[in-house]
C-alpha cells in the first residue's frame, strides 16, 4: 500500500497502529498535541490481557520487549471489607493472563520501535474537514495543515476527527475517580502498604469504592471511586489539597484507618478524574478515507479494557490495511465491522470496578460473587 496513513494521537492505540503499519512497510505519520514524549506522566499500571492487548503486541512484534517490563507479582489481588477484613485473595504465580506494566514504559517501547520522525510532536489539532473523494484536511493550532487520503483518529475522548464520522459526544456517566499516590509506602505508610499487599486492593461499598495498586517500587496508586453528580465535585476546591482530601475522606467515615490512609496520607494533591462515555454500541456509516480507534471510537467508563481495546484496534486496522493494499475502503470496512461488536461487548461484560458502583450490590461479597461467576 502506497497511500501514506495519517494518525492523530500518539497514545497506545495510535502507536500500535503505526508500528504494525511500519512492520508491513506502509508509510505513516503520527501527529501528537503534546510537545514531547515526556511532556506529562502517562498514568499508572495497565494489565495487558492475553485475549486483546497481548495479541496487539504480537502483531507489532514486541512481545519480548513487553515481557521485559512486566512487573512480577502485580496480578495478585485482594478484596477487603470496609473494616479492613480480607475476604478474598488471589496470588500471582506468573501464569495469569493479565500481566501488569507501567503505561509510560509500554508507550516508550512503541515509540522506540518506530523510525525517527514518525511522530510529529507539538501538533495540536484544531479542526478537520472533508475535501471530497476520501481526502481530508487537518488544521493545527499553530496554523499548519496537512491533507491526507487516509486519516485515523486515535485522539481520545474529545477527538477532533470523530465529527467527520459521527455527531456523538461523550457524556458524564455519574462516577468519578479521585487519584492519590503514596510513595515509599513500605516505610512511610506501612499500614496502607500491608493492606494493599503485592498487587491490587478493592474495597467496595454502594456508591463508593477504594481501588489501590502497588506500582513499581513501593508506590501505591489509589483510585477513589464515587458515584456523585458533577455538581457535587464542582463544590470541592481541588486547588486546596488539604480541604479536598478531607472532603473525599469524609465519604469513608468509619472505614478502617489502613484504607482511609490511602486517601488522607497521599503524597500528591488529590486529582479529580470524571468518567465520560460515548453511547454503548456507538457506530457510524462508512465514510471514505477516515476511521477511528480506541476512545475516539468507543469511550467507556474505566473497566480494565480501554487500553487493551485501543491497542487491538490499532493492530487489527494495521493488519486490514496490509491485507488490502489496493482497496482502502475494503480494509476500513472490514476493520469497523469487527471493531463495533468487539467494543460493545467489552463495555457490557466488564466494568467490575466502576460501572454499577451505585448499586446496593456493590459490596465485597457482591464483587467476590461476580469474580466467581466470571471464573476469575
TrEMBL record:
Reported cofactor(s): FAD
Q: Its domain of life?
A: Bacteria
Q: Which reaction does it catalyse?
A: a tetracycline + NADPH + O2 + H(+) = an 11a-hydroxytetracycline + NADP(+) + H2O
GO CC annotations, alphabetized:
cytoplasm
Residues annotated to bind NADPH: 40
Pfam families recorded: FAD_binding_3
Q: Where does FAD bind?
A: 47, 103, 295
Instruction: Give any single GO term for biological process.
Output: response to antibiotic
Q: Where in the cell is it found?
A: Cytoplasm
Q: What is its EC number?
A: 1.14.13.-
How does the annotation summarize its subunit structure? Monomer.
Q: What does this protein do?
A: An FAD-requiring monooxygenase active on some tetracycline antibiotic derivatives, which leads to their inactivation. Hydroxylates carbon 11a of tetracycline and some analogs.
What name has this protein been given in UniProt? Answer: Flavin-dependent monooxygenase
Organism (species): Streptomyces montanus
Amino acid at each position: 500500500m502506497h497511500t501514506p496513513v495519517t494518525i492523530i494521537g500518539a497514545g497506545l492505540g495510535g502507536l500500535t497502529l503505526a508500528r504494525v503499519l511500519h512492520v508491513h512497510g506502509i508509510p505513516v505519520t503520527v501527529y501528537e498535541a503534546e510537545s514531547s514524549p515526556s511532556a506529562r506522566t502517562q498514568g499508572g499500571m495497565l494489565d495487558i490481557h492475553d485475549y486483546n492487548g497481548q495479541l496487539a503486541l504480537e502483531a507489532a512484534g514486541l512481545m519480548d520487549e513487553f515481557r521485559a517490563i512486566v512487573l512480577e507479582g502485580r496480578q495478585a489481588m485482594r478484596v477487603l471489607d470496609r473494616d479492613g477484613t480480607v475476604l478474598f485473595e488471589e496470588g500471582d504465580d506468573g501464569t495469569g493472563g493479565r500481566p501488569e506494566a507501567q503505561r509510560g514504559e509500554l508507550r516508550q517501547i512503541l515509540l522506540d520501535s518506530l523510525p525517527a520522525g514518525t511522530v510529529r510532536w507539538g501538533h495540536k489539532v484544531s479542526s478537520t474537514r472533508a475535501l471530497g473523494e476520501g481526502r481530508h484536511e487537518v488544521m493545527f493550532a499553530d496554523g499548519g495543515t496537512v491533507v491526507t487520503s487516509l486519516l485515523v483518529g486515535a485522539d481520545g475522548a474529545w477527538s477532533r476527527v470523530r465529527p467527520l464520522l459521527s455527531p456523538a459526544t461523550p457524556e458524564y456517566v455519574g462516577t468519578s475517580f479521585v487519584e492519590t499516590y503514596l510513595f515509599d509506602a513500605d516505610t512511610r505508610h506501612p499500614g496502607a502498604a500491608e493492606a494493599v499487599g503485592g498487587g491490587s486492593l478493592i474495597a467496595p461499598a454502594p456508591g463508593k469504592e477504594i481501588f489501590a495498586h502497588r506500582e513499581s517500587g513501593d508506590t501505591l496508586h489509589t483510585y477513589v471511586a464515587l458515584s456523585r453528580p458533577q455538581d457535587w465535585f464542582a463544590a470541592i476546591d481541588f486547588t486546596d489539597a488539604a480541604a479536598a482530601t478531607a472532603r473525599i475522606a469524609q465519604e469513608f467515615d468509619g472505614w478502617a484507618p489502613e484504607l482511609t490512609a490511602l486517601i488522607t496520607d497521599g503524597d500528591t494533591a488529590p486529582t479529580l478524574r470524571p468518567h465520560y462515555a460515548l453511547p454503548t454500541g456507538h457506530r457510524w456509516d462508512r465514510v471514505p478515507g477516515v476511521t477511528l480507534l480506541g476512545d475516539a471510537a468507543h469511550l467507556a467508563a474505566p473497566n480494565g479494557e480501554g487500553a487493551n481495546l485501543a491497542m487491538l484496534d490499532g493492530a487489527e486496522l494495521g493488519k486490514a490495511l496490509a491485507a488490502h493494499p489496493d482497496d482502502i475502503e475494503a480494509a476500513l470496512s472490514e476493520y469497523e465491522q469487527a471493531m463495533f461488536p468487539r467494543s460493545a461487548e467489552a463495555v457490557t461484560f466488564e466494568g467490575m470496578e466502576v460501572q454499577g458502583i451505585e448499586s446496593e450490590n456493590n459490596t465485597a461479597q457482591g464483587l467476590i460473587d461476580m469474580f466467581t461467576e466470571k471464573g476469575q
